[in-house]
Amino acid sequence: MTHAAKAKRILVCDDEHHLREMLSEYLCERGYEVMEAENADAMLAVFNDDTPDVVVLDINMPGTDGLTALRTLRVNSTIPVIMLSAAGEVVDRIVGLEMGADDYLAKPVDLRELEARIKAALRRQGFAGEESAQRDRMTGTVPFGMCRLDLDGAKLFGESGEEIAITSMEFSLLRVFAQNRGRVLNRDQLLEQAHDRGWEHFDRSIDLRISRLRRKIEQNPTKPETIRTVRGIGYIFD
Length: 238
Prior knowledge:
By secondary structure, the protein is an alpha/beta fold.
């Protein structure tokens, strides 16, 4: 006897009631379980009782803003976070990515694009996806500078064995580098292999994410030796 797959849980945090209602209705019709939060405090409270699979988080909210909430969330969680902003400014994208956001959408939200971004986030987390399931899969651990990457557990450990928090996108990038040791990869190749084509219009996303990774794995992030820049081409892990 087969059982239907458990619905993935999406937490929508936005102070606009009509937007939460619209997103909830749309996503529920497509088989997701949706939780709503009208502000950052309500969103963080959800994690005390239940853990969603993806968070859709508005940047501009009264009280605690979305970026501050993201910073708080990242202390203990690597859950995928898709940021929303009415501004749609590059500075918001840069700050959000540096703080650990997995994706970014400007308002007004295209519902089909949001669903596509959610599916991509779930796929990166290892939730069913034929594309990721059929990929050749490495196992074991891979050293990255002072750290080691557990490919089976999708975890990064420091020199003393302590776990270092990484997002799903950061893990995807490290896995891509591990699969291509000694090979120079350009930004398009990194985006493609990390299942992040949604960011192809914003080239700096890769640079920002690698900069964030370097702060975690390099002894001196300003002079990286593990993931090096190949000027005019891309990056190499050797």
